[in-house]
## 1
Amino acid sequence: MASEREQWASGAGFVLATIGSAVGLGNIWRFSYVAGESGGGSFLVIYLAAVVLVGLPIVIGEMAIGRRGRGDAVAGFGNRGPDARWRYAGWIGIIGCFFILSFYSVIAGWAIKYFVGAATGALWQHAGDGYGGYFQRFIGNAGEPVGWQLAALGLTMFIVAGGVRKGIEAANRILMPLLALTVVGLAVYVATLPGAADGWRFLFVPDWSKLAEGRVYVAAIGQAFFSLGIGMAVFITYSAYMDEKTRIPRSAVAIAAGDTMFAVVAGLAIFPAVFAFGMSPAAGPELAFITLPHICLKMPGGIFIGILFFGLLVAAAVTSMVSLLEVPVASVVHRTRLGRRAAVALLSTGVFVVGIPSALSFGTLADVTIAGLGILDAIDRVVSSYLLPFGGLLVCLYAGWHWREREALDATGLAGSGFAGRMWRILIRYVAPAMILLILLDTAGTF
Ligand code: TRP
């Protein structure tokens, strides 16, 4: 029983909310360590190509599917009677979001713990053995990570329970401008550190020999999927609340550009500091949690910088969690008699329970491994390497092949756009699916 249909207050509100979904731990925590491991500038070149050639056309496709369907993820794919099998594409998104949220909330919880620690000063008492030991003791602890995971979910529940306009849109209107200011401010400050130029060079000067490494392409395309948040019906769900006036291609370009700029500026806040203090940019997932607090203690005003940085991480994570929760919530609200609040409570409880093993995967459950990976890493890997590309592929097939040309151009708002429409068709029909297939095949061979 659908309640009265909800809508964004404005086109700008829609774009802000989708940028809020896209900008998250992926841009700060994941981008910086993946770029760090994959050679900086060369990674960035391939990443930009992946965003434009694969990411952007899929975002446009998802938005068109969502606005057409005017419901949840399933309605997006399922609104053409005889082809009810497409509905499963919607279910993949709903289930995918649920599982992403289950481990994403764990890492968001770490960020909250560090933010609170930075603000109260507790974090700064642990310089003794560096932050490696501190981080290991924290994530190895039985109860603590679960508690912080719950805090992250609590914030998310509060926002999503408020509804599309008063909850999601309002939160993004406040948090996104703050986030942009903070990250730019941090990047500018860090640029003044002696030795910062090495960080800029690392991020912008490609090491062309890396272009011969297949794994850099796989990492770049996977990162583009995760960072934009495509393939899991987020844009489908958010676009159902969009009005007919909002221009899809223009919104999609704004989102792809905003997300990418955010990642680059976050990189400029991190790498120059890493280089200025002689640390390794390839520290892996612990870059944000071990390397950075250490650097903060060394720089002038670093404690304040640390508070800002972890505050940034929390705000970015929460606006993304909101989108991940909204996808299943929208479905439950559409398909059952439950109201929004009940749906939020039910699903968050489920996410919390399913996420507990991830939260414990570095401590109590550290011995449990799947294909050599801990629980959190294994879920992340399955989602990022298989589920997201597969979901993206289905969007390509639906918007590019299932829809006839006329229908697709009308739904995207590209009808009469000439060149842009032709380009989009080529990308979504051939280029994006081909690249995704390559990635899926490669991953299947190496997992
Ligand atoms: N894009 C977010 C980030 O960069 C994470 C995210 C939100 C996401 N919604 C998603 C990832 C949907 C995959 C699918 O952190």
Note: The CA atoms of residues 370 and 378 lie 6 Å apart.
## 2
Amino acid sequence: MTNRTFTMIKPDAVANGHIGAILEKVTSAGFKIVAMKYTQLSRRDAEKFYAIHKERPFYGELVQFMTRGPIVSAILEKDNAVDDFRALIGATNPAEAAEGTIRKLFATNISENAVHGSDSDENAAIEGAFHFSGREIY
Ligand code: GDP
């Protein structure tokens, strides 16, 4: 699975009408979409997905934000997918993100930062399996 990563277009970017522009950046950068859905996380889903951040002060705010509206979730394929996608989206805080990155272009702030990108091959596999069954991956 080292050539796959998992992403979400978060509720802020969906609400602000950026789905099309973000997908254009993703596919132009050479990522192939192997799974995709338009969905909304339940509170339980978001708490589980972000369980690693449970002790962080922003956990409650993060769960609240990620459940407030629909998201697009996807599994992407490309050589070096995890690292290349993290480079494409930019730093967690859009104020620190490089010019031209997705977060620089479309994020609002460190919380509402437009997109998720897995931080390791291991987490990419876990996160992809959390959102998609085998028969939804092409
Ligand atoms: P990422 O890997 O770049 O998404 O960053 P992290 O794994 O550190 O954090 C996960 C998500 O939690 C981020 O994408 C933000 O949506 C949110 N987040 C991170 N740091 C903060 C913070 O300091 N304050 C708030 N409100 N949200 C944060």
Note: Residues 58, 61-62, 92, 110-111, 113, 116, 119 surround guanosine-5'-diphosphate (CB under 6 Å).
